Here is the input.
Amino acid sequence: MPKIVDEQTREATRRRIIHEAAREFARLGFDQASINVIAEQAGIGKGTIYLYFENKRELFLAMLRFIAQSQLTAIRSALAQDGSLDTRLELLFRAFVQLAEEESDSFNVYMSALYGVNRAFQAEATRLLRDYSAVIALVLEEARARGEITFQDVDATALMILSLTESFILSARVLGQSKQILLLQAKKTARFILQGLTAEQ
Amino acid sequence: MPKIVDEQTREATRRRIIHEAAREFARLGFDQASINVIAEQAGIGKGTIYLYFENKRELFLAMLRFIAQSQLTAIRSALAQDGSLDTRLELLFRAFVQLAEEESDSFNVYMSALYGVNRAFQAEATRLLRDYSAVIALVLEEARARGEITFQDVDATALMILSLTESFILSARVLGQSKQILLLQAKKTARFILQGLTAEQ
Amino acid sequence: MPKIVDEQTREATRRRIIHEAAREFARLGFDQASINVIAEQAGIGKGTIYLYFENKRELFLAMLRFIAQSQLTAIRSALAQDGSLDTRLELLFRAFVQLAEEESDSFNVYMSALYGVNRAFQAEATRLLRDYSAVIALVLEEARARGEITFQDVDATALMILSLTESFILSARVLGQSKQILLLQAKKTARFILQGLTAEQ
Amino acid sequence: MPKIVDEQTREATRRRIIHEAAREFARLGFDQASINVIAEQAGIGKGTIYLYFENKRELFLAMLRFIAQSQLTAIRSALAQDGSLDTRLELLFRAFVQLAEEESDSFNVYMSALYGVNRAFQAEATRLLRDYSAVIALVLEEARARGEITFQDVDATALMILSLTESFILSARVLGQSKQILLLQAKKTARFILQGLTAEQ
DNA sequence: GATGAATGAGGCTTCATTCAT
DNA sequence: GATGAATGAAGCCTCATTCAT
Here is the structure.
């Protein structure tokens, strides 16, 4: 029964492919990225990729989902501890800065799928975006329950916070700001958002 | 003066190519877009494009610059009239909503170049982003001169405002909100930003 | 208007491709034959073939139809002159021997499409087979009108004659008989068929 | 005697592979047929096939030989009993109709190898064809010994009879005739061939 | 200047075959 | 012996680019 041999090995290879795929897709985009190169980087044969993923598109989507899961986990754990909305928004911001820095490939490729023109992946990216948004919505609901804040549409507000947070980081990148500088702005940013939300009422 | 007539014809053809390129690139992205289709839509021969642009990449960049110029013009004219910073931020927001709606192809393709993964285009898009940012910086400087507001880094602040404005529109799209709904939020958004800025100090 | 330039050149190229395709398909069969090699043999670029034929399959079918037309023409002209059924069957046989010899690639590939297992082409080959059969049916009808022969189902009889004629030639090939020997058997074969038909009544 | 048991098991597996190979090759032809599918259908691992056959080509040839043996056996037993040449030709025809119906996979794949385009298999198929032919030659010799018929080249005549018989069946297939209809024509066909042979003298 | 037929590099994908377990 | 995961050669096809007309 050689099949059962390596459930772990299989999963490890899958991870390695996804990891290299993220690098390559982040570097070149979906179309320019080469399955061949991904295989080489992952240290496996060209054909082996097709034992793990149906085709290039499915590999990309699997990678996208993997990225989203891993980022979601990071975000959830950042928001796990209790605290005021202000504090938690700051933690959220820090978590994103961390992701953008440490998993910059993943961050890039995800942003690209979301804001890029390739409609094929926008649908999936949007679906994942809502997962992110849901985590923030939860935090908002708790803050509302505690009377910290009021708002009309929790989903819309959550999405806006997410969008703003990403927006901060993206523009910081354009400015060439380092992670350190960005982290220093965490508190200010949280307050910015909070103030903004209050102003909306 | 047949030279001028030819010059005009040439410029007209150039515009037509760029216009169709924007449509095609917005629809399919850089790689999936086809030179062939662009030529057909522009009503010219495939080879003719290469009399106007060195290659696909240069066509894309030329298109990007054209879009940026045209959007800049729209933004400048929106901010032309005097007024409080609050009012002008509202106008800025309205101008972007307008662009995103009426020139959605251009807006898409520009966002994609900016947040997309293709570094080659990111560099150029970033350069253009700074042009946008400069317009906003000017407005900010005027407001500071009038004592309406204070801030440390005018460029960073301008970039942030730009980034936030785009961010609002992008997230509205994800939510599927119409232009009408977005325009209704113009005033609130302006106040959001202004409050946020104040909080930052 | 460079498009109109060469309607003839285009047709010539098309012919050359089909000719080389027949050689290659006859040599290796549909799957083993390489578009690349066909292009090389035809002295054109790999991609050029796709300007003339949608894909490999369509090239094969076009070739099949071309072969059928050309063979049909040969057969029709062989049966053009009047004469007794006996004479005309002999002429038919000679025409097939000629085809099998001079256009052996075409003959091979057609037989292969007809009797091979590749269902994809059997349908088309069968359709063409009926065209052949129709020519023979015409000859039979004329013979019947002249009272030379009687039979029940003209189509079935025609098909049988065709099938037998091909069968003779195929088995002669297996025996390694030359064209000369085969031609010597023309008269005997015609009589064989005629006797056989009579026996059927 | 565990050796014999193993030998039997081995032979049984070999048979099963050949059987499924025939199904698959008959369905899709040599190139389109998949070793993978054959292994699955045979209920063994993909690699196991290579313990029984050197490669795909050898499997095909082995299958061809197996089919030929099994068809030869059927034909021999059909011609086993004494009788007039007329009767025996009828029996031969019936045997072939039976084979074409009951072992249509085998029949198809054999015809395809014989008339198909792949020279590699044609050589082997021709060799087998001569085995068939030899059985018929034996019948002819007996008939000649009894003074029923005369002919010059017994091998050529035998091959022709075989070829014609197959030809009848193949054209009946094209016409879409059922086995029943074909069997009804057995007597007529035998007479057709006999008459034809007589005419040849 | 304009054209589009021709080109061929490049890429995804398949699948017979190998070999470590 | 049996297995099937891994391999990589091979092939179809696309499409940006060239260039003769």
